[in-house]
Amino acid sequence: MLGRSGLSVSEVIYGNWLTHGETVDRAAATACVAAALDAGITTFDTADVYAMGEAEAVLGAALRGTRRESVEIATKVCLPTGDGPNDRGLSRKHVFESCHASLRRLGTDYVDLYQAHRFDPRTPLEETLVAFDDLVRQGKVRYVGVSEWTAAQIEQALTVAGELGLTRRIVANQPQYNMLWRVIEPDVLPLCRAEGIGQIVFQPLAQGVLTGKYRPGAAPPAGSRAAAAGRAPRFIGRVLGDAVLDRVQRLRPLADEAGLTMAQLAIAWTLATDGVSGAIIGATRAAQVTENATAAGVRLSPDLLAAIDQTLGDLVDRDPAKTADMFAVKPEWSAA
């Protein structure tokens, strides 16, 4: 269940940041979506800003022919989608225009979850929340959520929504979260657990680092995200320091003992966290989707969870001040 809402989501969620419309062609994207459906994945995550709308269009085309009621589609609004002053943020104007554009690209009458991609300090929170609520009343949005908001921002939104008596309160938060990046644990997670807000986390594999495919002192393997064209190498390059890669390799015996791949171990670890409703995976090949989807339902023993913590040690970042800053990393993480 997504928090304390009535919406069911798949534990493993298929997302298309940096893939559809960028590093993966339409044929491969369609195959990945088909593999996700075959594996029992029902929840699909995207955003208006991914590939400047192309990711939504590719996902919509790939899902065409699938019974709409059998899947949950989530998308987002806030980050710049154009050069104009109103092509960004959470103003009523941009929220409405972006939602309608997303619906057209996705080829659907409604989205199951509409999320504020970041907090917008320029727009009154009341304006944003009422705009979201109006979309719910119009039937274009079923549930609303946020992404990479701090605990204070989420708490403020809950307070304002209560004062305004809005139809639909926030039921989801989408933060970055994985074995290495745990900055939501001190503040965001406790608040969301208390308020019934489910976490749909992204980068459970730390952009592939936790799969173990990258090794200390070695060039990125061919076909990997770090060796790809486009923006992907810039993002993953921040976490390819030998200190991280060496420690990740020490997780391999733990995965082997559990009968899991490194990727399955990392996803299952994320799903073991109380309050996490689902983990978003990306893929360039259908086989990756099939492998990673099997992490759903895996339960890790307390001894294994403790061994993971001991292995990663002080490389884990739990600094709550870095919430909402997905580009912040510990110095020892970087290859620079």
A few lines on this structure:
The chain has twelve helices and eight strands. It is of the alpha/beta class and 336 residues long.
Topology overview:
Layout: E1 12-15, H1 26-38, E2 43-45, H2 54-63, E3 72-77, H3 92-106, E4 111-116, H4 125-137, E5 141-147, H5 151-164, E6 170-174, H6 188-195, E7 198-201, H7 232-236, H8 242-249, H9 252-258, H10 262-271, E8 276-281, H11 286-293, H12 302-312
Parallel strand pairs: 1-2, 1-8, 2-3, 3-4, 4-5, 5-6, 6-7, 7-8
Helix pairs in contact: 1-2, 1-11, 2-3, 4-5, 5-6
Give the oligomer, counting copies of the same chain as homo and different chains as hetero: single chain
Radius of gyration: 19 Å
Helical coverage, percent range: 25-40%
Main sheet characteristics: 8 strands, parallel, barrel
Number of helices: 12
Portion of residues in beta strands equals 5-15%
Morphology = globular
Annotation, overall tally of beta strands = 8
CATH fold-level name: TIM Barrel
Structural class assignment: alpha/beta
> Which ranges are low-confidence, i.e. pLDDT below 50, for 5 or more consecutive residues?
none
Q: Strands of the largest sheet, in order across it?
A: 1-2-3-4-5-6-7-8
